[in-house]
Design goal:
Oligomer: single chain
Strand content: under 5%
Number of strands: 2
Distance between the termini: 37 Å
Structural class: mainly alpha
Largest sheet: 2 strands, antiparallel
Strand order of the largest sheet: 1-2
Number of helices: 9
Order of helices and strands: EHHEHHHHHHH
């Protein structure tokens, strides 16, 4: 069975954006965490898993999102849009951290943070499928979005994000304390 991870991620983040305490976000985030693990293992965003791997409850939605992803790939005709380049691996690493953190925030009832982060990352398909462009650091774009909820994030999430984008945790926290409105590094836009 094929699974298109970018469109599954987009649908998941949209669910997070509209989440309330009665939603089944925790289950969805567990599935997405498993999907991202397979993405890293297979080195591509369109993954192949055995039939029965996806819980029956989510099968229809996963198939529909995967079809949208396949249609997108055909329409855009980006060469190698499925392969994980080093930059795309950084994006996936950040997304894995984000999904774990969303699950943690959801579990402790931090629904406003879950909604904010979900809203920021609902446009994932384009970022994971677009060709890498020199001088365009999408991982930093992810990171800047994540820093808007910095106070709600776990220390593990903060450290992990800094490590993925190559920034020092203390420097980032100092920047946030001084009211910085964007983090720029060489090549980020």
């Amino acid at each position: 069975m094929l699974i298109d991870s970018p469109f599954i991620l987009a649908a998941t983040f949209q669910r997070c954006r509209r989440a309330d305490s009665n939603a089944d976000i925790g289950e969805v985030l567990e599935l997405v965490s498993d999907i991202l693990r397979v993405v890293e293992q297979q080195g591509k965003v369109l993954i192949d898993v055995p039939e029965g791997w996806v819980p029956e409850k989510w099968l229809t939605a996963v198939r529909a999102d995967t079809q949208r992803g396949l249609d997108y790939m055909i329409t855009t005709k980006f060469p190698d849009s499925d392969v994980l380049s080093p930059e795309k691996r950084r994006k996936v690493a950040l997304l894995r951290l984000l999904v774990r953190e969303l699950h943690r925030l959801w579990t402790i009832g931090e629904y406003p943070s879950v909604r904010r982060l979900g809203g920021m990352f609902q446009h994932i398909p384009q970022w994971l499928r677009e060709p890498d462009e020199p001088g365009r650091d999408v991982s930093m774009r992810f990171f800047r979005g994540i820093t808007t909820t910095w106070d709600d994030l776990s220390l593990e999430m903060r450290k992990g994000c800094c490590q993925v984008v190559g920034l020092d945790l203390q420097a980032v926290e100092e920047w946030i304390k001084t009211g910085g409105d964007s983090i720029r590094t060489a090549g980020s836009k």
